[in-house]
Amino acid sequence: MTRSLATAAAGVLLATGQACTYQIQGKVLPGAVSTVQVVSMDSQAWFAALRDPGLGGVEVQAIVDPDRPNRRGAQGGRTDPDGGFAIPISDFGAGVLEYDVLVTARMPGHSPATSTLRLPSSESRFIVYLATGTDRAIGRPTFDPEGEIERFWR
């Protein structure tokens, strides 16, 4: 029932031309453990994150509905010098309908943070913590055809 109401509301917004682009917004901070959290804009955690110095130059990516076979490619970019980021999500009904989103943050010298969460409302923000460590995937291709052939023949 909630999904049908949300679909109707999204349809009205689209029909009236008042649909706007939804954005995943947040901040990347140094932390003891690499993790991704969603917090309310009026929470103490968000106010503390705004005061703390962030990590600039972090690559942040989002994939909407990562478990679906027809998922779209990753959208993302790099954080500003204060660690802030905003990733536009153009999927129909984003922020109104229920979608999952896979958020990944990477930076050389830090362990990656990755988590699949429910796409939050526009009144929520992401806080990403990156711990010092190594990211074994940086600098390596995600798919190595020659390695796959070698493993097949072993």
Describe the structure.
This protein has a 4-stranded mixed sheet with strand order 2-8-1-5, covered by helices on one side. Strands 4-3-6-7 form a 4-stranded antiparallel sheet, with no helix packed on it. The chain is an alpha+beta fold and 154 residues long. The protein has 3 helices and 8 strands. It has helices at 2-15, 44-51, 145-153; strands at 22-30, 35-40, 59-64, 75-78, 84-89, 100-106, 113-118, 124-130.
Task: Outline the fold blueprint.
Blueprint: H1 2-15, E1 22-30, E2 35-40, H2 44-51, E3 59-64, E4 75-78, E5 84-89, E6 100-106, E7 113-118, E8 124-130, H3 145-153
Parallel strand pairs: 1-8
Antiparallel strand pairs: 1-5, 2-8, 3-4, 3-6, 6-7
Percent strand equals 25-35%
Q: Class by helix and strand content?
A: alpha+beta
Q: How many strands?
A: 8
Mean of residue pLDDT values: 77
Characterize the largest beta sheet: strand count, sense, and whether it forms a barrel.
Answer: 4 strands, mixed
Oligomeric state of the chains?
single chain
Quick description:
With 154 residues, the chain is an alpha+beta fold. It has three helices and eight strands, in the order αββαββββββα.
Keywords:
single chain, 154 residues, alpha+beta, four-stranded antiparallel beta sheet, 3 helices
